[in-house]
Write a structure and sequence with these properties.
Blueprint (H helix, E strand, L loop, with lengths): L2 H12 L9 H17 L4 H16 L9 H16 L15 E6 L6 H14 L4 E5 L5 H14 L3 E2 L7 H15 L3 E5 L8 H14 L3 E7 L4 H13 L4 E5 L8 H10 L3 E5 L7 E3 L2 H9 L1
Parallel strand pairs: 1-4, 1-5, 2-3, 2-4, 5-6, 6-7
Antiparallel strand pairs: 7-8
Bound molecules: guanosine-5'-diphosphate.
Amino acid sequence: MFEALSERFESAWKTLRGQDKISDANIKEALREVRRALLEADVSLNVVKDFVADVQEKAQGAEVVAGVAPDQQFIKIVYDELVALMGDANEPLADADSKPTVVLMAGLQGTGKTTASAKLALHLRKQERSAMLVATDVYRPAAVDQLITLGKQIDVPVFEMGTDANPVDIAKAGIAKAKADGIDTVIVDTAGRLQIDQDMMVELENVKTAISPNEVLLVVDAMTGQEAATLTQTFHDQIGITGAILTKMDGDARGGAALSIRQISGKPIKFIGVGEKVEALQPFYPDRMASRILG
Ligand code: GDP
């Protein structure tokens, strides 16, 4: 996924190869390449500007280190900044003191929200944390059926009230049932639309107010490039998210969303989706991602 980005970065390092130290003059071209690399990868413009400014400041303040070539020194600066941009360390899913931990899943239709809900439930089960899925997409019977099917596949209970009930009532009843059953974590799957839509936002806000979730995870499709940044901004401003799951990281997206989400919302990516199967979910590690990006 990051081949193009890695190649572009390679051109940035090249401009410093053979120099004896980093200087204001020779860093200009390298910074220009870094900027180009990030923009081509669909990283949001404001994020790119801040990132390049930070790298420039660090590079200009860098001391000459004996035995370390300037290109290696510059790579280390970019690497550290990439890790910082993505949030330094993995941030695990909340684990509330009083059961159940409530996770509200938000996002547009088709991003992989329902699949991610099931993947998360399986991930928790593997950690000996019991989970329950709650189906609140009352607009699409197929969405409820999809969750039921996935629940069976991973042996996790699915709470549903069909499509005649209201999402707030379903979510509340689901959590009450989970509490009665001693379930550790409830994952509430919500309705998405193809585009951001006021009705969807109001409904989501109502559900959020009614259930006070410990986590509001925005599911973002990595394939959507720049739109991922706008989506994150809108959901965070209107609903308030606590983190994101970036799906379809196995595809051939240019990867910019991975770098924009944290800067835009101040909230971390907690997991990435790397395939259609229910097992295809991984915790997000900024350092591993930065290494992948640098190739
Ligand atoms: P929802 O409408 O947001 O609930 O989306 P779904 O969970 O129904 O997923 C939409 C499509 O994306 C389905 O075909 C999923 O199999 C696929 N999908 C979801 N997550 C991933 C992922 O991480 N990688 C790939 N390649 N496909 C995914």
